[in-house]
Amino acid sequence: MLLDRLKADLAELDTRALRRTRRSVATPCAPHVRVDGRDMLAFCSNDYLGLAAEPALAHALQAGATHWGTGSGASHLVSGHYAVHDELEARLAAFAGCERALYFSTGYMANTGTIPALVGRGDAIFADRLNHASLVDGALLSRAELHRYAHGDPAALERALAASSAKRKLIVTDAIFSMDGDVAPLAALLALAERFDAWLMVDDAHGFGVLGPGGRGAVAEAGLASWRVIYVGTLGKAAGVSGAFVAGHADVVEWLMQKARTYIFTTGAPPALAEALLASLDLIERGDERREHLAGLVALLHGELALARWQLLPSRTPIQPVLIGDNAEALAVARALWDEGLWVPAIRPPTVPQGTARLRISLTAAHCADDVRRLAHALNRLEAQR
Length: 386
Fold this sequence. Notes:
Blueprint: H1 2-15, E1 32-35, E2 38-42, H2 55-68, H3 83-96, E3 100-104, H4 107-118, E4 124-128, H5 133-142, E5 145-149, H6 154-163, E6 169-174, H7 186-195, E7 199-203, H8 218-221, E8 229-234, E9 244-248, H9 250-259, H10 261-264, H11 271-285, H12 288-304, E10 311-312, E11 319-325, H13 327-339, E12 342-343, E13 346-347, E14 357-362, H14 369-385
Parallel strand pairs: 2-12, 4-5, 4-6, 6-7, 7-8
Antiparallel strand pairs: 1-2, 3-9, 8-9, 10-11, 11-14, 13-14
């Protein structure tokens, strides 16, 4: 029976230490939270600038709800697009250094809508092998020929581009890779896009607000400016609210508005969220102190950790993975940390390749130095005991 097979499949997940569990947080997003009835120090969230519970954003959201109500009422292209959405998109475009921007309800929708709108049958996508699932799914939905090049390897990408006779080519990459914390070689990728007449789509989910001058992201940090760049920024991580945007040349964004199914066929985001995001952009622009503190925490973690068997991956971003390898051991270490009041998620396949299970430490500007020292000392001790 179907249900029996499903139960057997769930049991197999348990056997392989791959079943995910969901925890329930009873306090606002912050380093110190109450979760499943316990007070914990959390290193889990992507709230890199500590804005998710920022009172100024809550006040802007409240004022937005008072003015606009709680819902948009329709899709953006019917009657669910409001003046404050226009204001937000103009502000996002200027912030990203682009001609125009389009606001999506989620980053997943931005990626799975944008890729099929740009390429299809007879075209080719060239994707970093460690791209986020939303980029992989967008590529599959497009029905374009998919080439996955070795992670962060421009030479491998060059060979794939040179061998392709596709009429349209799209290079797709994360800016910061969410499970490794490393930064894509964006300048080299853009040079290849120009040489082979390709688009370059950069998903800066984890760099927006964190990297670059004024938190303008990885593309700005690399000093790149080109009509070929299609920039995706996520607004539910460092920005502390919700949604995402795609920015680029005005004609590209107009095409996406006409063709991206995840934009066209969904109810528009509540306009009150746009009010909160406008307030968030103000804080991001003035957030150098937050970013400097965050960089100091990254350096502190690297200085305090003294691991012999496990490996802290080389990352200069708030994503600090500790590679353990075995699924069961990664889970056991995460449980041991949990028992000490430290919440660090264990990441296992298929999110990461087989044999590379890890702890994914996420640092935020809301953490303090003592928080990081506590975690580092616990990890040092646990490794020595195992």
